[in-house]
Amino acid sequence: MDNLSLLEKFANPDLMQKLSIGEKMLASLYVMVLGMAVTFVALCILWGLIVLMSKMINSTKKEATKVVQAPEKTIAPAVEVEKEEKENEEELVAVITAAIAASLQTSTHNIVVRNITRVKDITPAWGRMGRIEQMNSRF
C-alpha cells in the first residue's frame, strides 16, 4: 500500500470509514509525524532569525559605544553625616533585635547584635520599580 494513497484515503471521510483500524493508526501516525516535522522546521527557522537579528543588533551597539570620561568631583567633608549615621545604626540595631525577638518569640534581652554588614543591592532598576509599584498598589 502506498503511503500517499493511504493519506488520500484518510483525507476523504467516505473512504476513511472503509479503512481498517491498523490503516487508520498508520495514517494517524503519518499525520502526527508530518505535523511535528513542520513545527520543528518552523521553530528552527525562527531560532535562526532570532540569532541573526541579535548579532545584527549587537554589532551596531558595539560601534555606537564610546567611552566618555566624567570630570572629577570634589567631595566636601561630611561631619554631620557621621553623627546621623551613628543614630541610624542604633535605630537599625533596635529594629533588627526586635525583629529577631519577634520571630523567635523571645525577649530582646536574650539577643545581642554584634555586627551588621550592609549588602549592596544588586537588583536592577526595573526590579526595584516593580517592587515599589507592587507595594504601592496594596495601599
TrEMBL record:
It is found in: Cell membrane. GO terms for cellular component: plasma membrane. The chain crosses the membrane at residues 29-52. One of its GO terms (biological process) is sodium ion export across plasma membrane. One of its GO terms (molecular function) is sodium ion transmembrane transporter activity. It comes from the Bacteria. Keywords: Cell membrane, Membrane, Transmembrane, Transmembrane helix. The keyword Transferase does not apply. InterPro entries: Na_pump_deCOase (IPR005899). This is Sodium pump decarboxylase subunit gamma. It comes from Crassaminicella thermophila.
